[in-house]
Structure formats: C-alpha cells, structure tokens
Amino acid sequence: MCINKPNLGSKVKKTLSILLAVCLLFSQAFYVGAWKSDNGNGTYTNPVLNADYPDCDVCRVGNDFYMVSSSFVSMPGIPICHSKDLVNWEIIGYVYTGLYNTGISYDLSSSYENYGHGSWAPSIKYYKGTFYIGLYEAQGKFTLFSSTKPEGPYAGVQFNTGFHDPGLFFDDDGKAYIVSAANDFMVAELSADYKSVVKNTKVMRVESISGSLLVEGSHVMKRNGYYYVFRTSTPGEAYEYCFRSKSMYGPYEMRVILNGPKIAGGSQIHQGGAVDTSTGEWWFYIFQDGQGIGRRDILVPMQWQNDWPVLGDPSTVKNVSIGGKDYPIGTVPVTFKKPNVGGTFPVTVPGNTDEFNSAKMQMQWEWNHNPNNNMWSLTERPGYLRLKALNTNRLWRAKNTLTQKVEGPDCTGTIELDTTNMKDGDTAGLCIIGIPHGYLGVQKANGVKKFITNINAGETAEGTLSTGDTLSGNTAYIKVSCNLNTNTATFSYSTDNTNFKQLGGSQKLAFDMGTFQGDKIGIFNYTTASSGGYVDVNWFHYNTSAGPNNPYQGVQPKTYSAYSEIAAENFDTESQVRIEPCNDGGHDVCYIDNGDWLRFEKVDFGNGNGSTSFEARVAGANGGTIELRLDGPDGQLAGTCNFAATGGYQTWSTQKWNISKVTGTHQLYLKFTKGGFNFKWFKFYGDAGTSSTPTSTPTPTVKPSSTSTPTSTPTTTAPKNIEDLNGDGVVNMADVILIASAFNSVSGNAAYNVKYDLNKDGAINMGDVIIVALKFNKILS
What we know:
With 781 residues, the protein is mostly beta strands. It is built from three helices and 53 strands. The strands form eleven sheets. Strands 4, 26, 29, 30, 32, 33, 34, 35 and 40 form a nine-stranded mixed β-sheet that branches. Strands 27, 28, 31, 36, 37, 38, 39 and 41 form an eight-stranded antiparallel β-sheet that branches. A hairpin with a 6-residue loop joins strand 13 (184-190) and strand 14.
C-alpha cells in the first residue's frame, strides 16, 4: 500500500501506515510480493517456502504449527514461523536477539568473519505448556531454549557439550533425550530439570548405502510404541532414512523412505521430520538444496503401512530397489491437495517490503552477524532507517548490514536512500551477501558522491569495480534484481525512481559451503575513514513475478462487460504492482514498471461489431504506454495506448484511444511497456450487440495533451455512512473487525452477507475493506 512518488513525507507515511495496520488485521489482504505456495483452490505447490529456511523442524500444538530453521551468524537468530495449515507461514519471532558472549563466531570485524558457523539444526518440541528449542553452536556447545510462548522471549541453558544436528524428544514419562551425531547414532538422556546430560550412549553405527557419506540430521518422534528417528545422507545420495525401535536405545530397524524430490530449482534433499494434523493426517517436511536461493522447504504427503512411514503421493507409491532391497516410495508432488486441518485459512507469507514506519524492526530482517545497536535507529528520524557508518576495509566485514532472504523464482529489492549526511570515505547502498558477493552504492570522496559497483567479490579478493554517474542531489534509488532460475543478479540506480540505469555486469548467485546459506539482499553503510556519516533509508520495496497474485482470494473470477467501467484493482492476476489509496477517490494500481501487467480473466466484448476505442484513468509525471493483449501477455495485440504526462502520480487524467475490433469473451492483459505511472480504471467503447449501460456520474477531468481525447470520468457515489457497520454513529475499529470477519468468511466459503458488500461488486473483498479503512483513517487524522 504505497504511493509511487519520490520523497514521501513522514507524516503521509504515518497516515498510510494506519491503513496498512488495519489491513493487516487479516493477513489475506494486500500481498507485498512474495512466492505463494497456496493456489487458492485447495492445492499447494512445492516448495512451500521458496527461500533459505534450512534444517527445518516442525511441531504441532493443538491446531497450530510451528517451524524453526537455521540462521548461522544472522541476528536475531533461529526464526520461528507459525502456520494454521502447514502451507501458509509467517515469522512470529526469533529464539535469540544476539549471542555476544558465546565466542567470536557471531562477531564481525575488519580482521575476522565466520559466516559458515554460528548456530544451526534447531529442534522444536512442546511439552506440558512449554516450548523447547535445542540447537548446536559453532563453539561445540548445545543450548536448550525454553518459553511458554511460541514467539518468546526464550531463556537458554548452555551445556558443556555439543550435539551434532540434535533431535530433541520428550517421552511419555517426561524424560528428555537428544539423538545426535553423524554416522554414529548417539542417544543422550537429560536430567529431570533438562539442564544437564545424565548419560550419552552410542547406540549403533550408521553407514550410507552407497559408501562413506555422512548420515545426519536427526528428527525424533514416537507412535504406537515405536521410536522413530529420521536421518538424511549428505550429497552424493538423496536418501531419507527411517530407523525404528521399541526402545530408545535400540536395536533399530532401517528403511529408506525417500530417494529425492524431482522438483526443478533444487537438487539434494537433506534433513526432515514428520508432523500430524488434528484430523489424523501425516505430513513430512524436508528441505532441498538449491543454488543462490539456498535451501527451500518441501511438504510431502505421508502414510503409514505396518507401522512404517511411506512418503510421497499415495497414487505413485511403488517398490523401489535401493542397495539390493525394495522399499515402498512415492514421488514428491509439485502440486498436491492441501493438508486437511479442519478449516480454511487465509494466505499468509513472510514479510519483505518495509516502509520503516515502526519503531521496531520487521520480522523478516536479520543483521549480518551481531550488530552495533548504537549505530542504527528507526526513531531518530521517524519513518526512516538510519544507518551510521562504521569503519571497515570492505563490505564483507561491514557491521550493521541489514539483510533478508532472496526468494525464487525471482525477486527485486529497491531502496530510496537519502545521502545528505554522508562523509568522505562512506559507501552506502544495496548488496548481495554471499560467496561471491556484490553491491551498488553511493560513494563519497573529496566532497563528490558517485554511484559505484563491486561485482562478484570474494572473501578476500575484490570483484569487478565500475563507476557510474555523479549524484548531484541527495536522493538515490538503488535496485537489485535477482533471477533464481539463472542464479544471476543485476544492479541499477536512478535519481527519479522511474528511469533506472544498470551499472556493472552480472552478479553470480550461488550456494557456498563457506557460508551454508543462500544469498541475501542487504542494506549497508560503511566507511574506510576513521569515522563516518550516516544515511537514511525511506523504504525498501520488494517485488516478484510470483506474487502478489489476486488479492481477492476465494472469489471466483467474474465476467466483466468490456463496455462498463472496470476498476484496475479488480485484476485477477498481476505482475509486480501494488494497490494504494487514491486522492481521486477509492484506490488505484501503482508501482507500474516496464514489463508489468494486469490480467482480467473474463472480459466480454459481446457479439456485435465489437470494440472501437479504449479509455483509461491514468496519472504519471512522464506518461506511459499500455498494450492491450488478448489471451496471453504476448497474445493478440488489440491496441497500443500512449498516454500523455498528467503532471504527477496523483494528478489524474481520462484519456482515450482508437483500437482494433475485438468481439467475444477474452482473457485481457493490460501490458505496460513504458512504466512509471498509476492506473485507476478503464472501459471500452463500441457495439457489443447486447451491451449494458453502466451507471456513472460525470466529473471534470484534467485536460491531457492534444495526443489524446478527454472524456467524462464515471465514478460511483456510495451511500452516506455505509462504513458504520455496527450503527454506533462512528467508523471505528469495531467496524474494521466486522468487515475483516466478513472478508474471511467469504474466502472461507461461508454465506455471503450483502450488507458488507459496500461497493456492490458481488463479493466481500479488499475494495470493501478499503472503504471502511479510509473512513477510519480520515477520522483518525
């Protein structure tokens, strides 16, 4: 929810943040651009999390699921994710905010870094009202954290021994165990207070089927009197092993239960565990090695046969010969029916875009190693992230680089950077953290600020340096565009957030055993001088071609008459655009860049003589181009509409163009081949044969240039006080909650309540929510 206009003031940003908070009352609302596994039709598509969430472990508490994953030297550490259906996840907290007294692995200096270490392989369990999370640390220690709340805060007890890839387990009698090690099968029993080890026993030796590969990553569960331990072999194989016994100390039988998912974009599977639903279904989470994306999470259906787990699509299960033995194994589905959890829940995704309007950092962000908390702020300039430059010799060892994960299949991150207070020696901008790494920033030297890139730098070696234009003003826009299919990225910059210029070559994205992590997008500021200045980041905007998709999930695509006004935000699918409140009334589609598009599934042009012209309500400082395409983004071209500049992103003009004849019902693509503008509504003119006449109220328009013909602007006037849903005389949070509940009811296939369909479009959707939210927002301001 954002204005596509440079230098958005803090007061305006704060007002819009109220509206954003209202919409976030129910997370099915505005997507901010993210991979979405939930297909909205009862199915999901693997990977569920298309980003670096390695060593995933999941537990169920009642009807809620919780996941933890490794974070190595990132801070805060060990993200905790929550889901209601095993498909839609959001980050709710971290196990720790910093580890400052546990060794040097978490610190970063000009002479030291330890990216591939830190903490990893967390195991989460819930026992008698308490969440327990155990993890291994690079200092050869095991730490057991506990909290009565899944999001924390957590208190930790560090043991004087380490457990490689620990699998935590609480037995029926309250005894706690840790199964660990690689190849050696070790079982440690904890003391009654879970603060020390009573004994640590080697139960057996496990060798991989194909040779001397590690078999590690223990996950432990119990069912029908059997103890089950799941382990995975390291690269060279792609086998998930299951061991079972009637005793924790064995003897154990062994089976291979998976021989690798054939899912594009990843390779080796590694480490996973089982989880059940309250309805009695069983599922298995496992992660899959990738390249620049890191290690992404795969959800696999699971059955039981003779007290052995069988993984894969049940319809594909067959005996597979491995190491001279046959094991029942199914294929890992790409798309499959969602878990039956007894209900339907909104689509949720981990966050990414940030306007920096909160005094607390959003959950998706992690610092690269321990930060210096005196050198950054979200409150010194409200509405901005302030980064103060710390001394170092290069980005790889720069403290206070703020990062979030790259995401497949592609992602783009952009920042607005205020460089007013930079000093000589400072370099600030946007980077890719990985091996290799790279960045595009503004560098100040001798009082002059220039754009500069460093591409494909190593841990100790510089990459390819390029220098761009001089920054004459203070505001810069820096963008990194990542393609996780080709594992490459490019950097570009702009001074108007519209016209971007690439600088430097192609940045390689790779998974490297030196970091054990996928690539991350980072915001940085460091200085080679003894002391530096600071920069202010107004926002970080994130986009992906995989989302946000249709914000009206659960509502079937409706058929639009081409000859009635169609609101732009009622698209069925889109590519990297957003919806925002509009000063022309209602809301508009913004963040339109070259190559973006909107898709409307069913637009009826009738069976008469067809369309003759196209009209649209647009706003943009530099004009733009809309291509009308039928039945595909590169389908039949019905018209190319070049519109004139209107004077600003909220200065609206209605413009009209002659187009080719179109008849019948089509999938309509509005493809933007010259971007940098906002878009409110459109309609066609012509002879439908049986066309309907829209109800509209003419209003004055802004006169465009002579290249287009202005017409009247149809608008719909809503009845007074329709936003006061509970009739108490004021539009307040009670009304917001009512409309949010109605929205989720429709998406959950409950009865449609016409009272809450405020814009009368036949569905209770985001349009209705915004009507209430805007009125609520107006009262607040």
